[in-house]
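User: Last request for today: this protein with flavin-adenine dinucleotide, please.
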Amino acid sequence: MADVDAAQRALEDALGPSEVLSDPLSRALYARDASMVEGACALVAFPRSLEDVVACVRIAGEHGLPIVPRGSGTGLAGASTPIADALVVVTSKMTRILEVRPEDRLAWVEPGLPNLDLATALAPSGFTYAPDPSSQQTSSIGGNVNTNAGGLHCLAYGVTSNHVLALDLVLPDASVVRLGSEAPEAAGYDLRGVVIGSEGTVGIVAAVCVRLTPLPPDVRTMLFDFETVEDCAATVSAIIASGVVPAAIEMMDHGIVVAAESFAHAGYPTDAAAILIVEVDGTPASVRAQSEAVERAAREHRVRSVRVARDEAERGLIWKGRKSAFGAVAQIAPHYHLHDCVVPRSSLARVLAGVYEIAARHGLVVTNVFHAGDGNLHPLLSFDRRVPGTLERVLRASDEIVRLCISVGGALSGEHGIGLEKREFMPLVFTDDDLAAQACVRTAFDPDGRMNPHKVLPEGARCGDFAMARGADAAGAAASLPEGSWI
Ligand SMILES: Cc1cc2nc3c(=O)[nH]c(=O)nc-3n(C[C@H](O)[C@H](O)[C@H](O)COP(=O)(O)OP(=O)(O)OC[C@H]3O[C@@H](n4cnc5c(N)ncnc54)[C@H](O)[C@@H]3O)c2cc1C
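Assistant: Here's the final one, the structure of the complex with flavin-adenine dinucleotide:
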């Protein structure tokens, strides 16, 4: 039984009274992330150091409170939405860059550091932290690590897991482990990799060692507009088929172009059926060659016009429209719901047609803005949840969209994670044994299920249900080693 009052007193002693919140408004504010699911929490704590994080985990354990780690709360899957008596541990006051070592191409940072603050701080040294989610102004490195965040430039540079060398993790028993290593390759199981994308279910990340990427010497940003969604989508496949892997390929359909343009005034063609923003980088010669190949692919698919950013200001403006697209849809309706399934690039046109058909059948407005190069869709269903019956229609349409993506060989999530919103979809792509094996990994870190319970795995998936575990006889297996196996 949780003793919330005792936990609050102990946390206030350890962190200071100003770092613990329990009033109804604060608890309501931290009861959800940027998704559509809402929960409830008992207490909110703001550690400022590794020692504070350890104290939070220890005190929560002593007083029977589950723990929900939280960065900036921009998650779109309900992964940091707390349930019931949870203690929400918010890292937003742990924002220091601890160490930058360009000679080793690495930096150590605290988990609450906003992604863009890291990139901005690194820029004068000629380096960057490559994963750049559209939420980078706000979302934290710790949140990015725990969702394995993607971003506009992850097509060429890879998602978060490619850019994290090591991390310090506070385990559910309040002990601290360092996973991974500063050296390029660590021996043994990749436990660092287990943490990345684990959505706060294996511990609290208290420090992250990130890989530094040199800023490219040259970059070109291009905007292509098309009269049909099909031509736009086909251009994406044609670019990749040509052998070029641009730094970024983002696609926006008509509805989102109109919304983003009226917010950002980026000069987007508002009469286009869809646009592509393509960025290539590298040496000047390679940028020239890549640009020519990309433009050729677009012309073969009847591109209407090609706009090349003339300077950094114009480049920034083109990206501003894309990065503010989720916010801009507020002009359409007050709420939106989205999934981030990934489909094979060659299925993009077909799946998009299906998405429009599903939305129309449910009487809903859908707009699409997504990482097209990765096939990572983000169909945004805009609606007003105060209208009775609307949320139900949105959820039915979402369900059909997810199933459509899976039916063409897609994956459930490209970057936002599973959280609460998508956990019941997990059996669509994983067998019972797959899920039980994942539960076993989780149990190895968190045997008592205290860390962000109810997330990722569907209700009922347990380690003990793993068919192999059920039948295994560990002692027998060890005893069956042939004579002389030990040296
Ligand atoms: C407008 C908008 C645009 C977005 N664009 C992108 C995009 O381009 N690419 C993308 O990948 N995502 C995007 N997202 C989703 C979101 O920003 C990412 O999932 C981001 O990584 C979440 O970071 P956060 O700090 O907000 O984490 P939170 O939402 O606070 O938490 C996310 C998960 O990480 C866990 N967590 C957070 N910090 C820690 C920690 N220190 N230790 C252990 N667990 C922790 C939480 O428990 C939760 O499970 C977007 C969201 C919005 C609102």
